[in-house]
Amino acid sequence: MTTFAPVTTLEDLDSLDDDEVTAGYSETERGDPEPGENRGRAYWHGWRVKMMDLGEIEIPDYHRRLVHESVSSGHFQRRMEAIRKRFEKDAA
Q1: Would 70 be classed as within a structural domain?
Q2: Tens-binned pLDDT, residue by residue, of the chain (92 aa)
Q3: Is residue 38 one of the residues assigned to a domain?
Q4: What's the rounded Cα separation, in Å, for the pair 40 and 30?
């Protein structure tokens, strides 16, 4: 089991590879173990967020603050729009 430092700031979140975060989130299913050493911090973050969404692990206060800051500042919408555009371009 590999444990990375949690993502606690928007700057930290922005430093992660979006594709790896997305892969970690989309590939995770209820009951999956924590990713191993073959995965990086971005994938691990995606896995953690999915596990929180599934109710498999507790949502820590630092994550609640990060989500609040991301949504209230418009950061989340801008980030999702950029990812959507990249996926559309790749599909074309």
Answers
A1: yes
A2: 667 999 999 999 999 998 899 999 999 999 999 999 899 999 999 999 999 999 999 999 999 999 999 999 999 999 889 888 888 888 87
A3: yes
A4: 20
The number of folded domains in the chain is 1
Domain that holds residue 83: 10-91
pLDDT in the model for residue 47: 97
Q: Does residue 48 sit within a domain?
A: yes
How far apart CA 88 and CA 30 sit, in angstroms, is 29
Q: Judge whether 1 lies within some domain.
A: no
- Token digits for 65? 């603050």
> SS3 letters for the chain?
CCCCCCCCCHHHHHCCCHHHHHHHHHCCCCCCCCCCCCCCHHHHHHHHHHHHHCCCCCCCHHHHHHHHHHHHCCHHHHHHHHHHHHHHHHHC
CA-wise closest residue to 47 among 27, 70, 67, 61: 27
